[in-house]
Write a structure and sequence with these properties.
The chain is α+β, with helices and mostly antiparallel strands. 37% of the residues lie in helices and 15% in strands. It has helices at 2-10, 37-53, 75-78, 91-102, 127-146, 170-176, 191-194, and strands at residues 60-64, 68-74, 108-113, 153-157, 178-184. Helix 2 runs antiparallel to helix 4 (91-102) and helix 4 (91-102) packs across helix 5 (127-146). The two termini are 25 Å apart.
Length: 197
Amino acid sequence: MRFVRSFTNAVSFFPGGRNFESSSVVLPESAGMVANRSELAKIFENLEMLSDRFNLKDKIELLFSREGLVMRLSEHTIFESGMASISPQALPLLEKIGVIVAQTAHLIRIEGHTDDVPIHTAVFPSNWELSTARAVNVLRYLIEHHRIDSLRLSAEGFGEFQPLVANDSPENRAKNRRVEVIFIRPDLENPAIEESP
């Protein structure tokens, strides 16, 4: 309850003074979600309310994986095409996501993914560099704007090599261009970090 109250207080400043409304969320069943399910379920619910408020149901996907809770953000939710700088339009959403991340103790991994269309510019020689730069820029935003401990965060770029669907149409390529924010299950976290005083 403390998490929910502090989260609600922290993000009750949507345009027009609107507050979050209560919502019932049916969580999908997933293997491995046992001891720490309730905490990840709270995060799931808060992220789903965030998606509703920004009217981004078609651009934000929430799911459970073996590693934990995954928030999948489409490319155009955060970036311009072929760019790694966070777009100004994405800042209000990332601000709210940062509040949610800051209210948890989970390790967070941020992954960048592209489609298979080659890129070759002075800044990004390949999709590896583009996907990595995007993940790092989201990570840097969370550290700089929400003072989240850098030991909790990691960033990885996978280029076009972990597609969700075949890159055989413009619609499918758009699905593969994404950033994923993964809240790692506590039982998979690094014991060395957990043991710090």
